Amino acid sequence: MKTVNVSLKDRSYQIIIKKNIFANIAAHHFSNYKKSKAIIITDKNVAKHYIKKFVSSFNKYKFEIQVIEILPGEKSKDLLVIKKVAEKLLKSNVKRNDIIYALGGGVVGDFSGFLASIILRGIKFIQVPTTLLSQVDSSVGGKTGVNTSTGKNLIGSFYQPTAVFIDPNTLKSLPQKEFMSGYSEVLKYSLINDKKFFYWLDLNSNKIISKNSKTMTEIINNCCIKKSIIVKKDEKELNHRMLLNLGHTFAHAIEKELKYKVKHGEAVSVGILMAIRLSILLNKTKHTNYNLIKSHLNKVNLPTSLICLNSKKKWNARSLIRNMLSDKKRVDKNIKFILLHDIGKAYIENSVSYEKIYLTIKEFFNE
Ligand code: GLY
């Protein structure tokens, strides 16, 4: 068992990483919340694999349990779905001391966290992430929210969970494409501030692809430590936490262009390479870094060009830049990028000419 502390004064919590963790979660509920109902929010895909096991570990203690299934995918991150589930909870007499468990990937986590932050003006919630993306990134740090027609995650709150329980074994049931897509976020951490970790990941590519249990536990632990340090420094993303958006300015524009019919992590993979390319164009990093990262992405079968993401689309650099400009989270006319001085040395670039962004994107039409 590995434990990571997220130190945020009165909102501090622990991340516990352990195989077959469901029994520990039920025991934790018994020790801390004996009189509270366990409200388990999950989606149909996750429920298929885990809900019986999860509920039966709770049944041992005879707690009151309520299971709520939402539809898988981003469409559930919607205020109308929040309202529907909130009303269901209110009708079933939810109390302020009840606990919401988010059992699933990023969508379930973001949805449940947001609901927990507003129902009865806030009840406790616990993350039980089951995908690689949610285990290394979205379950930690308290970003919660839903989408709107103007963009993703534009309604939400910073609301920290009271614990995160991670079972690396749940990765085994993930489709390979989804698993590898989550891996882009792992690579991201190494590029931000840990060159040694990058070389370690590269050396262990085969073990990663085959979801080697020991390797994945090591990776999850390392990423959670890195995220907890960043969140402690800058919980509300005023500066330092922005580094976690490496590759994401490009990725969000790509996702919008493909009407979100692309895996987030696959867009991040191309977005990361674009960010390195832009760093080279601005004379901030060396070309050898680009080659190293591209060769690593090839090893782990992640996309490295826009054509890899969608070969039928007529890609248009100006349209991607327009998507970046319409990003509602932008505070001035400049588009912010997270770029690299070196592998393991990311920084925030506040002002880049449109011409340089254009030239960067154009290089990804054919590779
Ligand atoms: N996923 C990026 C962050 O939590 O800030």
- State which percent range the strand residues make up: 15-25%
Distinct small molecules = glycine
Using the alpha-carbon principal axes, give the shape: globular
Computed over alpha carbons, the radius of gyration is: 20 Å
What does the secondary structure layout of this molecule look like, with pairings?
Elements: E1 2-6, E2 13-17, H1 22-32, E3 38-43, H2 44-59, E4 65-70, H3 79-91, E5 99-104, H4 106-118, E6 124-129, H5 132-138, E7 143-148, E8 151-158, E9 163-166, H6 176-193, H7 195-203, H8 205-209, H9 213-233, H10 248-257, H11 264-281, H12 287-299, H13 306-309, H14 317-325, E10 337-342, E11 345-349, H15 354-362
Parallel strand pairs: 2-9, 3-4, 3-5, 5-6, 6-9
Antiparallel strand pairs: 1-2, 7-8, 10-11
Helix pairs in contact: 1-2, 5-6, 5-9, 6-7, 6-11, 10-11, 10-14, 11-12, 11-15, 14-15
The structure holds glycine.
The site of glycine has 7 residues, from helix 5.
Key terms for this structure?
367 residues, alpha/beta, two-stranded antiparallel sheet, 15 helices, 11 strands, 48% helix, globular, binds glycine
Task: Walk me through this protein's architecture.
The chain has 367 residues and is α/β, with parallel strands linked by helices. 48% of the residues lie in helices and 17% in strands. The protein contains 15 helices and eleven strands. It has a seven-stranded mixed β-sheet, sandwiched between helices. Helix 2 (44-59) links the parallel strand 3 and strand 4. The longest helix has 21 residues, at 213-233. Glycine is lined by residues 137-138, 141, 143, 237, 241, 244.
